[in-house]
Design brief:
The protein is of the alpha/beta class. It has a single domain, classed as TIM Barrel (Alpha-Beta Barrel), CATH 3.20.20. The chain is about 40% helix and about 15% strand. It has nine helices and ten strands. It has an eight-stranded parallel beta sheet. A two-stranded antiparallel ribbon has the order 1-2. Helix 4 links the parallel strand 6 and strand 7. Helix 2 runs parallel beside helix 3. It is globular and about 40 Å long. The mean pLDDT is about 95.
């Protein structure tokens, strides 16, 4: 069977990501309680400095989040989320014109973040938590990452049983894409994320990673977020998220082999190196 074609670009507001080589999305958590780096960048000045460092290390875009989505994380208000992310977005915009993404499930946060200068919206709910998100994304012209999850972060790990996991994830992502397209968002502005660690068991994560190439049938780019996650810790018997780099790099290399185009990571420089080597082997050429 001939493999389905993969997208070569992803459009955002006033920007476009070239997907011919692996694209690295640097994680910038402006939160006190994220699972790996919570509290490190809660101060705007520290967050901006770290964001610029991630760009210097080779990030193609930054994903800025003001609400933790780790399993069990409590929800916060839109006002609190905005107070964390908008000063960082505005400060980064004074320093760089590189692409920025807002990691949020709230339409009001997405709207204000785009007004402040972000180019992409990363919605971990796949447009299922806020009924206004599709309209806001369409009106903004921002690119949109649609992730699969089942349940909000505070409850998503309470039931990780599926009948046919890969098929159910594909069906849910297809529904999210249909919602986006019906709202008037162009297909070339959309990417999908299988949601590793979101409403899945460790075994389920392994199954999804084994079948990443199946996601290409959806017809848009794939974003993969495995960085430092707990299933890697389970494999390596490593409780410290900061010591899961080698495991993370293995998942990136395997993702590249399955033609995944975008990777959401904490450790940009080593992730870029691993992705480029894997790409060169896959393509049998130098980047």
């Amino acid at each position: 069977m001939t493999a389905p074609p993969v997208a070569l670009r992803l459009k955002g507001r006033d920007s476009c990501l070239d997907l011919r080589l692996p694209v690295l999305m640097g994680i910038l958590n402006v939160t006190p309680d994220s699972f790996s780096d919570g509290g490190r960048f809660i101060e705007s000045e520290n967050a901006v400095r770290h964001g610029l460092t991630l760009f210097a290390e080779g990030a193609d875009l930054l994903d800025i989040g003001g609400e933790s989505t780790r399993p069990g994380a409590p929800a916060i208000s839109a006002d609190e989320e905005l107070s964390r992310v908008i000063p960082v977005i505005e400060a980064l915009r004074r320093e760089t014109d590189r692409p920025l993404s807002i990691d949020t499930t709230k339409a009001v946060v997405a709207r204000e973040a785009v007004a402040a200068g972000v180019n992409f919206i990363n919605d971990i709910s796949g447009l299922t938590f806020d009924s206004d998100m599709a309209r806001v994304a369409a009106e903004s012209g921002a690119g949109l990452f649609l992730m699969h999850t089942r349940g909000r972060p505070e409850v998503m790990q309470q039931d990780t049983r599926y009948g046919q996991l890969v098929d159910e994830v594909l069906a849910a992502l297809q529904e999210s894409l249909a919602t986006a397209l019906a709202a008037g968002i162009e297909l070339e502005c959309l990417a999908v994320d299988p949601g590793i660690g979101f409403g899945k068991s460790p075994q389920g994560n392994l199954e999804l990673l084994h079948h990443l190439e199946d996601l290409h049938q959806l017809g848009c780019p794939i974003l993969l977020g495995t960085s430092r996650k707990s299933f890697i810790g389970k494999i390596l018997q490593q409780d410290d998220p900061g010591r899961r780099l080698a495991g993370t790099l293995a998942t990136i290399a395997l993702g590249v082999q399955q033609r995944v185009q975008l990777f959401r990571v904490h450790d940009v420089r080593p992730a870029r190196e691993a992705a480029l080597v894997a790409w060169s082997i896959r393509e049998q050429q130098f980047p």
